[in-house]
Amino acid sequence: MRLNNLHIKNFRNYDELLVDFHKNVVIFLGENAQGKTNLLESIYTLALTRSHRTNNEQELIQWEKDQGFIKGNIQKKYTSVPIELFLTKKGRKTKVNHMEQKKLSSYVGQLNVILFAPEDLSLVKGSPQVRRKFLDMEIAQIDSVYLYESTQYQKILKQRNQYLKQLAEHKQTDKLYLDILSEQLTDHGSKVLLARQQFVKRLEFWANQLHQKITQSKEELTIEYRSSIPGDHWNDEQAVKKAYTQEIEKTKDKERLRQITLVGPHRDDLSFLINKKDVQTFGSQGQQRTAALSVKLAEIDLIKEETGEYPVLLLDDVMSELDDSRQLHLLETIEGKVQTFLTTTTLKQVKDKMSVEPEIFYINQGQLEGEDV
């Protein structure tokens, strides 16, 4: 899979830009605050309909503009597909092959991307919320059912939390409605839990291979899914739902007191172990970064395994955060098989380590200079 071209209008600091890409490695070169990251953000947003930098879509549209768009032509193994994302003050609209898509699950997955930015190096050390978002965004690209189930789960979770507050304030007394919401929550939540657990097992397989390569087989990486639902029945949806329902029942008094749902996928986390020791607590910064790098690169092979196509890789100034050894492993992993878009302020750390000739675009205040611009 590759992105053949990109057309954006009224997006961040870009009035309008139409650019074609011909090579497998594309470098956006320029000083800070010129728009390099905005370009990667536009590709990420085109793929997933949402930004990795903000939850407010209004921020993506240029100041004093009512609407904008991002368009691209996706080259797949047997076909090419144009996809379009229109952003307005009232919401977004998506098209695949010029046909409007009513369901988000019909759009997401047309272009698979992996973003690796400096903040992703804190995937291991960062907050549980960061890791949950990582799981949701990555699984949604390869599993449209998961995207639906997780969206429904979040919707019902919000309704349930609101109702818990109403119960506490005695504005509502219909506890039967709470039971209905709990039933719906466990129904969707069980499917989310199973999909996450299965994804983590596959991710661990690929990540451990890369981690052992980087550490010259001195370290073994294990990834564990830490659920707020007890048990180890992660291949049986009914067993998971039963355990989930029992846990909801156990915590119902605490939930009404605290006015919030206390168990479910929204409370879960990942653990990373190196040689069976928790790297989040006991690992060095180098070990934490190597684990994060292994996990991000593992997604490349995992997505290929699931979809039959390699994803597009977005590297946002990440080379400057890695030492020479990790830079080398990163480039060895991607070269020759993955279309890569890379931002940097200098070519020194990048070009000399590459065996292929990259396509270079110079960016200055939202303007590109380079081939075919």
TrEMBL record:
This is DNA replication and repair protein RecF. HAMAP family: RecF. It is found in: Cytoplasm. PROSITE patterns: RECF_1, RECF_2. One of its GO terms (cellular component) is cytoplasm. One of its GO terms (molecular function) is ATP binding. Residues 3-352 form the RecF/RecN/SMC N-terminal domain. Belongs to the RecF family. ATP binds at residues 30-37. GO terms for biological process: DNA replication; DNA synthesis involved in DNA repair; double-strand break repair; SOS response. The RecF protein is involved in DNA metabolism; it is required for DNA replication and normal SOS inducibility. RecF binds preferentially to single-stranded, linear DNA. It also seems to bind ATP. It comes from Tetragenococcus halophilus subsp. halophilus. Gene3D superfamilies: P-loop containing nucleotide triphosphate hydrolases, RecF/RecN/SMC, N-terminal domain. The gene is recF. Keywords: ATP-binding, Cytoplasm, DNA damage, DNA repair, DNA replication, DNA-binding, Nucleotide-binding, SOS response. InterPro entries: DNA-binding_RecF, DNA-binding_RecF_CS, P-loop_NTPase, RecF/RecN/SMC_N, RecF_2. It comes from the Bacteria.
